[in-house]
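Notebook entry, structure prediction.
Reason for the run: the old model in the group folder had no record of what sequence produced it. Starting over properly, with the input documented here first.
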Amino acid sequence: MTEKALRLGTRRSKLAMAQSGQVAEAVSQVTGRPVELVEITTYGDVSREHLAQIGGTGVFVAALREALARGEVDFAVHSLKDLPTTQPDELVVAAIPVREDPRDVMVTRDALKLTDLPRGARIGTGSPRRMAQLNAYARSHGMDIETVPIRGNVDTRIGYVLKGELDAVVLAAAGMNRIGRSDEVTDFLSVDTVLPAPGQGALAIECAADDAELIAALAELDDPFTRAAVTAERSLLAALEAGCSAPVGALADLPPLSAPLERGDPQADGQIVKEMRLRGVVGSTDGSTLVQLSTTGPVPETHEAAMALGRELAAEMLAQGAAGLMGERAQ
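New structure, fully documented this time:
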């Protein structure tokens, strides 16, 4: 007799379906059970408001978590950057698989790079974090750009460029890779130019905290380094009391590996790395003020050590005036 299928709760967007499908295959391999996708519509999917207005944090997550709590699905897949930093007691993030490319990318008209954009170029993004850093970059490099708030899926966003309404749009590299459209990317933004959102490129696989058997199975998909990195990033975000619509960027990486990995150097994989660098940025949306700091320490061996790394950097950023740049505090 074949075992009952595991039900995976997912958002309905093309990207969510693609990443959930990839997780479903991996879970099926480790459990030996079939996995079926259960599509769930979230408030963030149906609302046409800008993310900053609807509160950002959790708008894509609440409906999935409710389905988990009601037992309608066995586990759910989230983009980690959408997860609120507080974890409900009845649910557990059982696995954080190896992270995709965390960088932001641009799709521009005429395949232009960021540095080639003409004066007055209009760049579309719904993210205050991207706006703050792009505007700061433009100011420091004598560029004249306008950031335009947009929403919508990948097709909608790229459509603005194809129709000539915008000169460029900013998207996440991970999303473009997961839906097989990385060939449309015209510029990869270095993390020195735009730090990604905390947890960007990583997925969270969440299930009920009392389902020990499923937790153990899903744990096989967990990548300890990715978990340590995103834990440090999210700890920084939490300590700044920021929701995911706040202009905070953070990235934990391995300094000796970062450049070779960005270049796609195959030699990078085999190196033993002892240190983790955590970088954080918060800025005013117009880019006039930016607080950007970094810290380097041993690769965290425990959840607590990763949390501490984030909290320490957040404290330094707050001491340098980050609090005044957070805009509306998350409730």
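Summary: The CA atoms of residues 78 and 267 lie 31 Å apart.
The old model has been moved to the deprecated folder.
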